[in-house]
Amino acid sequence: MRGELKQRCIKILHVDDEPDFLALTKAFLERECANFSVDTATSVEEGIEMLKSGKYDVVVSDYQMPGMDGLDFLRNLQQNGSAIAFIIFTGREEVVTEALNRGANGYLQKGGDITSMYGTLAHVIEKGIKQVEKGKKLAEPKRERRRVLHSVPTMISYRQRKAIPAM
């Protein structure tokens, strides 16, 4: 199930306003997935500060929290140019479509069998990270082409000045 991501440490930031749920998620993911390292935040504001000071591969966020909600969090990251994978992990099914339409890389509904839920969360995390990494790889050649094309007028101008002797 884990493929090439099994070879490196996956840094996860889990944001939820329920400390007991954060502790349970952290314990399960770190026990079942040896390469997962989970940090937790109890608010979006705390999560934003942690993202400024730490390197994470993925954010797993609840939707309904005091202050900013999970979709506000996603919007904030996008506006600041972050290309981190973002997973909505919520008990509210009605926000799933909106989250995906706004650019979330995945979602999981809270509830049901705990073992199954966390096993699925691990899979959704890995899938989200792979999706973001694939997007970065696809964007790199496009950035390089853009850089080359922007330098073409300068190169043409330089060659024209060299080719035409001054009179």
Automatic annotation (TrEMBL):
Entries under InterPro entries matching the protein: Bact_response_regulator, CheY-like_superfamily, Sig_transdc_resp-reg_receiver
KW Phosphoprotein (keyword) present: yes
Stored PROSITE patterns: RESPONSE_REGULATORY (PS50110)
Keyword Endoplasmic reticulum annotated: no
Source domain of life: Bacteria
One of the GO BP terms on file: phosphorelay signal transduction system
Keyword annotations of the record: Phosphoprotein
SUPFAM superfamilies: CheY-like
Protein name as it appears in the record: Response regulatory domain-containing protein
Higher taxonomy: Bacteria, Bacteria division WOR-3
